[in-house]
Amino acid sequence: MKALRPFWPLPALLVALLLPWLPGLPAFWVTLANYTGISSIVAIGLVVLTGISGMTSFGQATILGLGAYTTAVLSKYCDISPWLGLPAGLIVTAAGASLLGAVTVRLSGHYLALGTIAWSVGLYYTFANLDLLGRNDGISGIPPLTILDLKLLDGRASFSVIWIGVILAALATNNLLDSRAGRAIRALKGGAVAAASFGVDTPRTRLLAFVYAAVLAGFAGWLYAHMQRSVNPTPFGFYQSIQYLLMTVIGGAAHVPGALLGAVLVTTVNDRLQDILPRLFGAHGNYESIVFGMLLIAVLQWAPNGIWPLIARIRPRARIIRADALRLPARAMPAPGTTLLDVARLRRSFGGLVAVNDVDFKLAAGEIVGLIGPNGAGKSTTFNLITGIDTPTAGQVSFNGQDITGWPARRIAAAGIARTFQHVKLVPTMSVIENTAIGAHLRGHASALAGLLRLDRTEDARLYAEAARQLARVGLADMADRPATSLALGQQRIVEIARALCLDPVMLLLDEPAAGLRHNEKVELAALLRRLQGEGVTILLVEHDMEFVMGLVERLVVMDFGTKLAEGSAEQVRNDPRVIEAYLGSVE
Amino acid sequence: MNRIRLAAAAITFGLAGPACPSTALADTIRVGVTISTTGPAASLGVPQRNTIALLPTQIAGQTVEYTVLDDGADSTRAVANMRKLIEEGKADIILGTSTTPASLAMITVAAEAKVPMVSMSASAAIIAPMDAARRWVFKVPQNDSLMADAIATHMAAAGVKTVAFIGFNDAYGDGWSKEFTRAASDNKISIVASERFARPDTSVTGQVLKMIAAKPDAVLIAGSGTPAALPQKTLHERGYTGKYYQTHGVANNDFLRVGGKDVEGTVLPAGPILVAAQLPDSNPIKAKALDYTAKYEATNGVGSVATFGGHAYDAAILFAAAVPDALKSGKPGSPEFRAGLRDAMEAQKNLVMTHGIATMTAENHNGFDERARVMVTIQNGAWKLLP
Amino acid sequence: MDSTILAILLQDGVVNGAIYALLALSLVLVFAVTRVIYVAQGEFVAYGALTYAALDGGHLPGSVALLGVLGLAGCAAGLWQARGRLDRPAVLRLLGETIVLPAVIAVAAIILAPMKPGVLVEVLLTLAIVTPMSPLLYRIAFQPLADAPVLVLLIAAVALHLTLTGLGLVFFGPEGFRAPAFSDITITAGPLMIPGQALWIGGLTFALMTALFAFFERSLTGKALRATAVNRLGARLVGIPTERAGLIAFALAGFIGALSGVLIVPLTTVYYDSGFMIGLRGFTAAIIGGLGSYPGAVLAALLVGVAESFSSFWASAFKEVIVFTAIIPVLLWRSLRHGPAEEEE
Predict the structure, then answer these.
(1) Which of B83, B362, C60, C247 could form a disulfide with C113 if both were Cys (CB 3.0 to 4.6 A apart)?
(2) SS (H, E, C) A75-98
């Protein structure tokens, strides 16, 4: 099976319109397909929220209820056309989700999962106790959708509406994930720190994923209300939320087609069990949930990542780079020799342990400086303090004449500092070039909505052209479409450099860039760094390979146990007795 | 290729799956049943399912085929079941479901498919106010208003002036809260506390303290099955000595088992089936109810009968009574037959069921009167008919 | 509200909270060792309570048959998982745990059940029937998933919950049960009327916590479990088999669940599906406590119990709304204190 190609929506649309009218098609298949369609829309939202962003929600059914109740109240009590219930429902769910999400996405890990349980239980009982919403009895007799006075009562007509909805949801989601905002979303799980270092506003991106999933659930709620023709609290509870979640996981939580597959499987299996089990065990007793649970465990053991990755060969799409894309504007470099970075009495303590102890050093624009020291000397912590990943306990960092102490990472990135990481932080589910393009996040401006509607193509092509250019520069052009983690570790470090270059940085912080490289690769890397220096980029690097460092840098800063031990030219440092002692004391 | 085989297997399972309606004889009457045999209303649904197994497979010379599906008290599943029963099972009539919200959700489907349905749940909202959709809907359990009136009248006669109410935090509790508030004000009784609890709650101490603090002459507990025993036991523990009333929702022997001596002296309204043996022989309900009880206990054990199962039996009685007339309108499986069933059910007069005697009209699709309820108390661990 | 009501509500909340605390403890334990959020833990409460109630009524509970079936399935799963590296002692051990032990318990239950042997024997028998199911389920359901992500383990636990609840309905029926208290004494202290069972709950919870503490601090097995919790790979490298650690953690969870069930069934009515709501409270407490801290979980559990008790007094219709909405600020506070969102799981 091939991965879905961009041309699939048109034939799919035709199928959605024509399939239900196929002669001889049993009416109940259509009904079943309608329920499946509604569930898949919710599950597609969960792919973005849970499978891709890593936020587990136990409240999707309740959000679906929000959309369903909105259109139910409007169309039943206010005589408003059901079609207007759609925008109203989407606005209410988006607003509600923004409110809930503002709190929820700030929670981490399991707190978040419990948070979703908490507000969904709260909302459920609110539905059940509000007179306007008909309390536990709910609202029945909701008008159906109409097209030109024609009531869509027939399941076959609903089929077309629902499955056009599914196609739109899948299309929008694919577009979103393929856009600038989508790359930020995909970086949330596993790469949030790196993404923040390239200007991604992670809390906002988490909120975006949350609201997006909620809007899809609200959309499903609108379809639900007009197909079911009644709403009450029972289908919006915890159990139904779990059903949506397990559909997503069974199908393959990180893949949009997986959501569809999961919805189809769960709905079909549940329906089949209703028919098969009474024949096997007789009508005395209910065995559906028992057998369903056992099947579920068996499937999870067989396919822990869901079924879709098993039947479809998942590989990143080869990207066509538009050679004619306009180059992104570059920023002006500061005049060589002026002080660019000024670190003053920088300090970071964790409880009693002082990881960085009143460290001072300066970098002039256009310099290459090495930061060395034995393991645990505080080099990476110093990097984190400069780039805003971590906040100093005391001291000051100035960059380009501005005090950047305590700035969030994304603001520091915007100021022109780019970095690589000691432990490579590439998003495993993205290709090399997609990872690289995250570096150019701040050089694009397209909103999530623009991405969703494909209005961002010109800009996105420019971002990708830039990413391709930087990959070519570091010598990895032919790896662009490989999954990032399929590269050797040394090459992954080079991808990180390409990603950093996409930021168009004034200063580069490289954390052990040469680790894992072969000799000739190191020579190429050194040449690249010199070329960058020639272009005015200032470089601070942490490196253990002394030969590499000594041949490259103008100055060295030596750290040990959090304190600066020495500073000066390679020659000076090499002869410093304190440095010799520190290194001999901890010979590697 | 493993993948291809896998995909093929999935497709085969998915597509070949939904069974085409069995090719039985054309004049088989198909009865679709959706009830809550699992989930929060399982104590209603299980005896109903057991009752369906006792129903006749021949009515007026026609073969009758029953298909029972479980909806777990979830309205999405109830409606999906109903569509499955109608579209795939070609059902001529739908019996169900056990809970009010799910029954309400099914009304629209019944009307659009033009298939009559007989609900087995409590609220009068299922059949009133009568409208174009509800024309297709009948309901066999007593309206909760009928039962609420009975309790309020009994209270007034016993000199009760103040009542504390505690009900399920669901549709059943909602319905009772509404109906009893009306009935109480009709009888000049004031409600001094109104509390809610959930079926799986392990403690109702908070609610009980509040009720006792209001010093009511009597308490009314509106819950169904064994969960309704918890507030009463807690009230007892906390030393409440006033009168206890329960609703017909508790009328099964499991309630007596769990309640034990703490529920002695409790008064409740119930369908006559609960105390069928104590009814005078002149009451036509007696024979019907004893007949059902005997059949049920023969397969499910002595003392296992519950009044909820009686609702399923009554639904079947109503349906069976309508079959002969409906057959005159058309063959089973035809729209005419279904419309005929509807018309014939609406035309039933003085139809004896296990819970009462129904006289349907175009406006009233329940048809029960005072004969459908008796006042019962609990004496020495058994139900006792009050005069 | 006067002080009497205050005291009674507090007492009620603490008793419920103690049960939540027990469940929270075992959830923390199971999660730490196996990364499974054990949603099905609640079913052990229901199974424990209903098995005890059935034995008290002189019936043979359906859970005995389930134990036998699980034993066979566990044996098959064990043989399959260890295929290729089975030696004689391992096979004997497996047979002992999955076939012999359940068989002995089942025979004991079949002989003893009709005799109505009294509260103590019934309680012990209940614990013996229900506890072994948990490690058997670990073998069957979770061991093959040991390296799966937390989300997949969670969904597997949900699946197990669905199966066990369904079986509970088949075995025990839809109606609730009660069983006799361990003692009929009631202590009156001022306005408070403390039933003996509440004292049992408090006492046993405390004893169990002390025992767990001693177990983790003193015994070798306990230390091994803690090591596994901190670092699975490291524990395996120094020779602590993670499968064993998982089995022990699940056994403890099963035992605590069954014990909680036996403890509450004299105080309240328990249904086949009661476990889930009780388990959800335990889960809530475990997470508020940080899914890693035992004292934190206990404290949170007591808070949840008391919050429930008070909100059911103030506005019973909105009890769940109040309790669960109150959780959100606590979560926010915990989350912020915990620092930024952790990267991977």
Answers:
(1) C60
(2) HHHCCCCHHHHHHHHHHHHHHHHH
Q: Are B97 and B106 in contact (CB under 8 A)?
A: yes
Question: Both tokens of residue A249?
Answer: 């996981």
A20 within some domain: yes
A510 to chain C, minimum CA–CA distance in Å? Answer: 21
Q: How many domains does chain B have?
A: 2
Give the closest residue to B234 by CA, choosing from C282, C41, C316: C316
Q: Which chains touch B (3 or more CB pairs under 8 A)?
A: A, C
DSSP B306: B
User: What ipTM does this complex have?
Assistant: 0.91
Output the CA–CA distances (angstroms, integers) from residue A108 to A54, A59, A186, A189, C336, in the order listed.
10, 16, 17, 12, 8
Cβ of A104: how many Cβ atoms within 10 Å? 26
CB C99 within 8 A of CB C71: yes
Asked if residue A69 and residue A21 are part of one domain, the reply reads: yes
Domain with C40, as residue range(s), is 3-337
* B218, B249, B270 - which closes a domain: B270
Instruction: Locate the DSSP E strands across C175-224.
Output: 186-189, 192-195
Closest Cβ–Cβ partner in A230, A264, A284 for B105 = A230
C304 inside domain: yes
Residue type for position B216 = P
Same domain for A109 and A219: yes
Query: Of the ranges A477-481, B41-45, C91-95, C234-238, which one carries the lowest mean pLDDT score?
Result: C234-238
Q: In this structure, are residues A85 and A70 in contact, taking their beta carbons and an 8 Å threshold?
A: yes
Q: Exposed, middle or buried by CB within 10 Å (0-12, 13-18, 19+), for B377?
A: middle
Of the pLDDT bands very low, low, confident and very high (cuts 50, 70, 90), residue C238 is: low
- Does residue A477 contact residue A471 with C-beta atoms inside 8 Å? yes
State which residues of chain A have pLDDT below 50: 1-4, 587-588
Q: What is the pLDDT of residue C338?
A: 61
Q: What is the pLDDT of residues B59-88, one digit of tens each?
A: 988 999 999 999 989 999 999 999 999 988
Point out the residue among B70, B84, B108 whose CB comes nearest to the CB of A288.
B70
